[in-house]
Structure formats: structure tokens, C-alpha cells
Amino acid sequence: MGENDDSDIIEHHVEEEMEKKAARIRGLSSPLLDSLSPSEREGHSSTQSSHRLLAYSDALISIIATVMILPVAHTKVEDNEELRESVQLLLTTKIAVYLMTFLIVTVAWAAHIRLFQVIVHIDDCLALLNLACMMLITFLPYTFSLMATFPENVLGILLFCGCVMVIGVIQSVIVLYAFSRPFLLNEQIQISENLTYYKHHILKVIMRVPIMCFFASIFSFIFFQLSYVLLAIVIFLPYISQSLKWCRSKAIGQVEETPDSMLFYTYLPNEPLSKERVEAFSDGVYAIVATLLILDICEDNVPDPAVVQKQFGGSLVAALQAYGPEYLAYFGSFATVGLLWFVHHSLFLHVTKATRFMGLLNTFSLAFVGGLPLAYQLTHEFPRNSQNELEAIQISCVIVFFAGIFQLSIWVVALYNEQETLHPYVWYGGREHVFMLAKLALYPCVALGTFFLSCILSKFSTSIFHLMEITVPFAFLVLRLLVRIGVALLRFLFCPNRSDLTTIVDDEADETRVPFNAVVT
Amino acid sequence: MGENDDSDIIEHHVEEEMEKKAARIRGLSSPLLDSLSPSEREGHSSTQSSHRLLAYSDALISIIATVMILPVAHTKVEDNEELRESVQLLLTTKIAVYLMTFLIVTVAWAAHIRLFQVIVHIDDCLALLNLACMMLITFLPYTFSLMATFPENVLGILLFCGCVMVIGVIQSVIVLYAFSRPFLLNEQIQISENLTYYKHHILKVIMRVPIMCFFASIFSFIFFQLSYVLLAIVIFLPYISQSLKWCRSKAIGQVEETPDSMLFYTYLPNEPLSKERVEAFSDGVYAIVATLLILDICEDNVPDPAVVQKQFGGSLVAALQAYGPEYLAYFGSFATVGLLWFVHHSLFLHVTKATRFMGLLNTFSLAFVGGLPLAYQLTHEFPRNSQNELEAIQISCVIVFFAGIFQLSIWVVALYNEQETLHPYVWYGGREHVFMLAKLALYPCVALGTFFLSCILSKFSTSIFHLMEITVPFAFLVLRLLVRIGVALLRFLFCPNRSDLTTIVDDEADETRVPFNAVVT
User: Using alpha carbons only, how large is chain B's radius of gyration in Å?
Assistant: First the structure.
């Protein structure tokens, strides 16, 4: 087998050479071909770059992660009840299901990233196995919501555990298949000597989850509460095992480390997470969430011609006016989600390496973003100036605040290790540092401000909220100017002796190069 | 202004140098940073790579393109009617709306691609303008469905035209903004001398559509049928203008060509279309379509505990059995969509350059893919062996057939210009040519076979259909083997004198290097 593989690799390189030559012959020095990375150029043989497979998987997983917000969004809040009660009812069941599903799916996604950081090339067989794996992942939310609706019924637990076990088995098959064809693996592992050690280590980590689920499904017949404990352990296993490791290292002194294996399949908070995939997954979630309301509008808010004729005397304008709040909610949530995406995009432009911990914070941020359309829809569903409306607006502010705060915390975490995770331009004292901070802080600050203003001036809460929705996009447009003015002001207040610098405020870029943090903090 | 820009560009390069140096200093020769293209490494300054903005736009547009399938999918087909009638009812309205929306949105998407092939870098301002543009594009399907539901009402036409006009204005602003900062533009345009000519040409092409819509909205007050004619012209404008150009060139001989401007904003069928974006858009559509049914399942098919207690005596299994057909439809449609994605993925691995015509064929293929979940859902909704069931199965086959055939035709079109559009390995006689053909032909052939079998053996149509669903994934797994056997057989039949070659059939890869097409055709 090994000999066969070697010949494959050699053949592979020969092919690549030939390919290049062929391209040169037919005069194809197009920028498109040149921009391809070597792994992409290998596309012609049966070995392929995994790039697009992963993009498709990310798209599927991001849809599935947000799917459980639909039952929440489509729950009709009765007008005669108080919002507080119905929200409490929602909170206890559907929102909990949504958040847990989001967490479970992102755990599966993180495992998928980890797997395909080891396996960097694919072939047809791996692509098909991955599709089978995806099919089961997309079924997870349903089994989980069955489990949540019928907590005492064995079937839900069995279905959920069954899915997780089959996913584990498929992933193990993928690992075994890839290790039997080492040219599919990450170069670092490919050239390392203890390939078998890696294989066993990875299989051990992968199989841990299905084995726990196996026990959980057995215990479900005897004492189902124990199953839930086991399943909770599965989800929080990375964090538990990591803190255990930390305790052990503290108790018995520094344990010997295996620096090579540390890169893959550890649960350290600074374990690298493919930045590209974090972006792709986030893009998927933002895109779904931004369009959630228009999906409903397109389906439900096209009036029936007969109804328009009968109830509105044929006046379409009058008929559509009834849907006014829905349009407002759509534009509001699209703009907010779009701008949060914009902040996320700006942040990740400056990130050079994503870590596990940053990925976790990103997940929390996305989970709140998923709730946004629902909250915005609520703000327009109640009569003007009612207690319900006020609370809906406050809930919206809280959600926007948390979505923004978790984005900000990604940056804070990145700053702790700025030399590895960030571009020099956003380091403390870097040229773009203050600007980036302002971008990230804008939404949390505005949301907090709106929240407190709506508490104090409860009568004008709707106007304040709409004003916020309208001004924030423009604030982002002129943010660079605002930051410059703010910085100049700060400098003027705290270092009046250096106020001569403010005269060159118009000069592009150079003035922000001096370390402001030293000034501000 | 120009001076300012020049200094910007120079500063930009200096920054990049500094960045590299800084990276070298902190010993960051990580593969991640090395794998970044130069444009991505510029991310630290206010100029950014447009990559992620486009990915997000593609995700949004792919969701929006498929949204109008939801009203089709959620139309309840009555059991007591014949499927034929209800399908005819659907065909005339909702399916037409879906197909037209898909076409309109993909036209908007193609315009977006064209725009961002000229503007290759973005800054914050462009990102925000693009988000505004996206918001209006996501609103297009709704306005169109209003227009389709109330064809004689002015409001629908006005809303639709209004959206298109605002999109046009925003795109013009984007062009003007980008041309005032030439470092944002494509290098070819950036270094060309007649920048102003390009600007005017592009603005002219962009403004054509909103101006037509402006006239359409004015005519809607006078004679609304004319508005529809104008709107139809807008959509088919590229094809009309192209055929007019062709006629002119035939009539008055070869017209002088502007080879530089030909690359951008022409409507020639071989105008390049960003391959990356075609892939991203297709991934989005496949992902949405694959999960369409699970979205419904997650929302509607979790039974109410009270109902289970009352109607099924607390037996969850019995309650879930009622949903059996839905699960089957989900797995069936996920597998079929997933495999069609797999074929698409394999095809585009071999494509080096996507053209406008290939993009159009891809759109047709995707439009059929969008109808798949609906068709699969229908197959399980009717009583066994009814006429309805038979027809639902035949409709599914037809949809799969067309989705596959259009994929195949992308390849055929690419083969006509294989030296520019394909990797040498899939050229006529290339090593992977036959294998690729088999991959692309598998679904159309199987769908055609199932269709005719279900006509002949109408009693066993369901079994035949399920058999197809189950065997096709395995057929893909062993396709390479099947192709090799088929080729060996063909060679044995037609060239018995060269049958000695078949003995080395097991030898990897080399035997397919000889030109089979010469043998087969």
C-alpha cells in the first residue's frame, strides 16, 4: 500500500509539472490561473482541493444552525396577553431549544473544521462520505427538538444519539480512508514519522463522542435523567477535558508536551481554527438571518385578489398598508444584520489567525444575531405606546447589544495575543486601532443608549428606536471622520501642550500612527 | 484628486513592504499568511479585498433567488382532486412566478458580478453602498410577485420599477466612487489610458435598465401592457442587443472592435464570468434547496405532547409514523440535491474559465434543482399506486433530468472552446474525459430510465423510484470502476485486435490516456 501511495504522489507531481507546461503552451497566463493556489491547480486529477466542499458544508451547517429560530419567530404572540408572559413561555421552551441547537450544530461544525484541517485534499469518495455526514448533521436539530418536546420519551434520546453515533462512525471512516492515502493529509502530518500515532489520537478524540452517546442511549432505558447528564458532558467535553488537563498540569507539575500533536485535535483555547471557514459560516448565518423576514413576507404578505376586491374595494394600497409594520421590520432587521456583518467583516480583515476561543465568542455573537429578526418583528406588532411595545424595543436593544459585545470581545481576546492573531495595523497604538475599536463599539453603545433612553422617555421609545435604525448606517459612513474628531478632542483635553498636532488632522492617515492608547489610558 | 490618489497608491505599497517586514521580524512565516494573495494582504489599510463582500452577496442572492419556491411548496394539493388539475393551476401562477423571479434575480446577480469584475478592491463606503443595493435586490421577488398577482394594478409595476431604478442609481454611485479612486479598480483598467471612456461605457450600460424601468413606470399609468413589454425587454436586453450587434456585423461587414473594452460590460456569450462567484452562488442555491424540506420538518413535524397523549395513547412512535413520508422525501431530496451538487463540483473543478453562456445554462440547471424538494414531497403525499403518485414520480424524474441535462450542456459548451475553458485532462481524449462524461450523464440517464420504466410498469413505479434513490449514490461511489469496465467492453467490441490492452485495465490511470473518442465515435 505504502509503495503504491508513493508512486501516486510522484505521479501527482509529474502531472502538475505537465499541467503547468500545457498551460504555458496554450498561452494561458490568465490572472485566473495564476491566482490559483497549487492545491487548486491539482484539481484535474482525482485528488481535489477541499475548498469548495468545505464552503458547501459551511453553507449547509449555517442554515441548519439557524433553523430552530423559525418556530420561535412563527409563534403568534397574542395581543390580549401581556408580552412578558408570552415571552417567558417562549423563553422556557423554544428559545432554549434554538440556543441549544445552535450550540450543538456549532460543536458539530467545529469537529468538522478540525477534521478537515488534517485532511486538506479530497477525492470523490471523501466528498460522498462528507455529504452523508452532512445529511445527518442537518437532521440533528429535529431530533433535538423532539427530545426537548418529549423529555421523558426514550425515542427522542435514541434518535439523537443514533444520529451522533452514525456521524462519528462516518468521520472515523473518513479518517481511516484519508490515512490510507497520506497524500490527502496536511503536509505537516504527511511528512511526520509517527503517522499511526496521529491516526490513533484522532480516532480516539472522534470516537469519544459516539461512545458517550452509546452509553447515553443505553441508560435512557434504565434511568433517562442520566442520559441527559451524559449528553451535557458530550457538549461541554472539550471545556471539561481542557480544565482537567490544566488541573493535572498544575498538580503534578509540567506534563511533557507533544508539540506536533498540539496543533490538531487539542481543545486548547488557542487551537487554530480555519479563519476562512469561520468567515464562511458567519456569512451563511448573517445571510440567512438577514433574509428570514423577507422569506415570510414573500410567502404570506401577497394579498389574495378576491380579498382585496371584497375588503378594500379593490385598492391594493389600502390592502398593503396593513402589512406596513412587516416591511419596516424587514428593512430594520436587514440593515442591522447587514451592519453587524459589516463590523464582523472589518474585524476579520484584521485577524490573521482565528483561535478556538474566538470561534466560541463568534458563535455566541451569531446566536444573538439569529434572534434579531424576531425581536424587530415584535417591535411593530403591538399597539403604539403599549407596555408590550416598549418591552419589545428593549428586548431588541438587548439582543443588538449582546451581538455587538461578543464581536467586541473577539477583538479583545485577539488583542491579548496580538502578535499572532492580528495585523500590525490594529495592534495597540497601530494606525487603525482606534478606528477599529470605534467600529466595534458603535452598536453596543447605541443599543445601550437606546435601551436607557427608552426606559426614561418611555413615551418616545418608538421614535428613539426608529431614529437609531436610521442614524446608525450614516454613523458608519462618517465613522472615520467622527473618530478623528473624537481623537483630536481627547488629545486637546488631555495633552493641551500637544494641541498643535490637531492642525494636521486633515492629513490622511499619518496622525493616527502615534500611540493613542498611551494617551487615552 | 489624481495627485492624492497617486500618493495613496505609493503609500499603499510602502505599507505592504512594511507589513511584510513586520511579519518577518515576528517570525510569522505561517502557511496561513503565505497563502494570502497580495490583495488579501492589503487588508490592513482602508482598502480591502472584495472577496468576502462578494461571498456574502452571493449567499444573499442565492437565498433570494430560491425564495419564491416556498409558496409553491406550501401549496396544499387536495387529495380529492386529480394532481393534473392542481399542477396545472400551480404551473400557470406560482411556478411561473418562481421561474421568472429566479431569472430576474440572476440577471441582477450577473450585473453585480460584472460590476465587481471592474471594481476589485473595496473600502468601507463601497461595502455599505453594496449592502444598500443588496437590500433592494432582496425586495425584488416580493414586488414581482405583487405584480404577478395584480397584473392590472399600477402599484406592483411602480414598486418593481422603483426598486430597479434605485438599484441602478446605487450602482452608478458605486461606479463613480470607484473611478474617483482608481486604485480600487481592476488593474487592466487602472493602467489603461482611457479611464473616462470606460467610466462612460459602464455607466451607459448600467443606466440602460433603470431608464427603461422609468419609462415602464410612466407607461403603466397610460397603457400598462406596454410596461410589461418594456420590462420583458429589460430582462432579455443582453440577448437582444447581442443579436442586434451580430446582425449589424453581418450586414455592414466586420465592425471595428475595441479589444480592451470587450472584456467588460459586453454581452457576448464568451464574456468571462467570475468562476468563483458562479460556484459560490451555486453552492448557496444547492444548500438552501437541500435544506428546504428539513426547515419545514423542524417547524411543523414536532407533534404536540397533548395531541400525542390524546390521539396516539402517548406513543410517540405512532405519532411520528404519520410523518414517515416527509422524512423519506427529505432524505431523498437531500441525497439527490447533494449528488447534483457533487456533479457540479466535479465539473467546475475542471473548468478554468466560466463564460456568460455557461452561467446561463447553470442558472437553468439551478432553477430546476429548486423545484426538486417540491416534486419529491409530492411523490409521498398520495395513496399508493394512485394516478397522482405516478404523475408525481414522473414529474420528479423530469425535473432531475433537466437539472442534469443543463449541467451536461455546460460541459458541452465548455468543450467547444476547451483550450480556454477546461483543464487539459478533460479535453477530448484526455485522461478524465470519459469519467467526467459518465458523471454528468448518470443522472439524466437514470431519470430518463426511471421515467420510461414507470410508464411501462406503472404498478411498480414507487419501488422503481425508491430503488433509483438508493442505488444512485452507490453508482457514484463505484463510477470509476464502472467506466473502466464500460470502456474495456467498448474496446473489446469495436477493436478486438487491440483487446490485449484490456489486460492492463487494473493499472491506475494510464490506460485512459489513449484517445477513446476516436474509438467510440
Answer: 27
Q: Which of A102-111, A195-204, A480-489, A503-512 has the lowest mean pLDDT?
A: A503-512
The answer on pLDDT for A43 being more than 50 is no
Helix A51-66 vs helix B275-300: crossing angle, to nearest 10 = 30
pLDDT at B265: 67
* Domain membership flag for residue B39: no
Alpha helix positions (H), A150-274: 154-180, 187-191, 195-222, 224-251
Same domain, A213 and A306: no
Tell me, yes or no, whether B292 and B399 share the same domain. Answer: yes
Which grid coordinates are listed for A50?
Answer: 477541499
| C-alpha separations of B235 from A252, A355, B10, B232 in Å | 73, 46, 43, 5
Q: Do A60 and B291 touch (CB under 8 A)?
A: yes
Residues of chain A contacting B125 with CB distance shorter than 8 Å: 477
A294-319 pLDDT tens trace? 888 887 778 877 788 888 777 788 88
What ipTM was assigned to the predicted interfaces of this complex?
Answer: 0.82
Mutate which of B291, B309, B479 to disrupt the A interface (most A C-beta within 10 Å)? Answer: B291
Report the residue from A139, A295, A342 with minimal CB separation from B127. A342
Residue B4: inside a domain: no
Q: Is residue A131 over pLDDT 50?
A: yes
Q: Does A314 lie in the same domain as A222?
A: no
How close A489 gets to chain B, by Cα (Å)?
23
Contact call for B342 and A298, based on CB within 8 A: no
CA-to-CA dists, residue B79 to A265, B82, B84, B378, B382, angstroms:
53, 7, 12, 11, 7
Tens digit of each residue's pLDDT (9 = 90 or more) over B142-198: 988 888 888 888 888 899 999 999 999 999 999 999 988 888 888 878 787 788 888
DSSP B432-495: THHHHHHHHHHHHHHHHHHHHHHHHTGGGHHHHHHHHHHHHHHHHHTHHHHHHHHHHHHHHHH-
Domain region containing B132? 48-75+84-252
d(C-alpha B490, C-alpha B97), whole Å: 46
> Does residue B261 register a pLDDT over 50?
no
Cross-chain Cβ contact A302/B335 below 8 Å: no
Nearest to B48 by CA among A364, A279, A472, A284: A279
Mean pLDDT for the stretch of residues B405-422: 89
B387 vs B286, higher pLDDT: B286
Is B334 close to A138, i.e. CB distance below 8 A?
yes
Which chain B residues have a beta carbon less than 8 Å from that of A61? none
Residue B7 forms part of a structural domain: no
Contact B70 A298 (CB under 8 A): yes
Coil/strand/helix, residue A273: strand
Q: Is residue A159 located within the same domain as residue A224?
A: yes
Distance from CA of A154 to the nearest CA of B (A): 9
Closest chain B CA to residue A318: B155
Mean pLDDT score, B413-442: 84
A351 and A235 within one domain? no
Check residue A166 and give its pLDDT. 94
Q: Confirm whether A482 is domain-assigned.
A: yes
pLDDT at position A16 is 44
Tell me the CA distances in angstroms from B392 to A363, B206, B443, one per residue in order: 41, 43, 18
Number of domains in chain B: 2
* Exposure on the CB side of residue B109, measured as CA atoms within 13 A: 34
Q: Which of A272, A334, A350 is nearest residue B138 as measured by Cβ atoms?
A: A334
Kindly report, residue by residue over A218-237, the tens digit of the pLDDT.
888 888 788 888 888 877 77
Rounded to the nearest angstrom, the minimum Cα separation between A6 and chain B is 13
Distance of CA B440 to the CA centre of its chain: 16
